[in-house]
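Researcher: Here's a chain I'd like modeled. Treat it as a single chain, no partners, no ligands.
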Amino acid sequence: MTKVMILNASPRKNCNTAKMLKEAARGATETGAEVEYIDLVSLNYKGCMSCFACKVKGNKTGGLCAFKDDLRPVLEKILQADALIVGTPIYYSYPTGMFRNLMERLLFAVMTYSKGDKPNMPRLLLEKKLATGLIYTMNCTPERAEQFNYPAILAPDNNYMELYFGHCEVLNAFNTYQFNDYSKYMADIVDVAEKEHQKETQFPKDLQAAYEMGKRLATMKL
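Model: Modeled as a single isolated chain. Structure tokens:
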């Protein structure tokens, strides 16, 4: 049976990022895949500790980070899975710290500083392929995202996932609705009518795209 890991790197368990990930989980489940959904905010873990256990000659990590904390079992499940989808909101132009810490532990442990079989590629400790997807939700419009260089900021994680695991696709949800009641917050520069229109017309399309991502990755053969 195909195994799919879905990780929510948002501090919110039921808002925009979570809603999209749950749609991805629904799509994957409908293919008959075994799906595990995890809220990373519930775990106690850190980023890479620079122990370099994954870089020692002859190590038996197999691409699994050696540091033991709440994230270690999750990383082990990822390396045993067939597909992985991670979602994060964008805060001040960057993914959350939870996402960053996950990426450090996941990506660094997979690669070595030895030459691989392909030009300009390191030797990888993980032999299998993994269909991966990244979902980004953000308060800003596509135009503002371009203005603040979001594509360039997010590209490294996207590219490394593609290089190390064999496939990565990205889904962006722009101009998301942040508050249940904007009148309670210092947010008078926000065009609430525009936000409501986006929520009613575009976000359902984003949810559908997430559903289709889950379905697609769960059935992908690499």
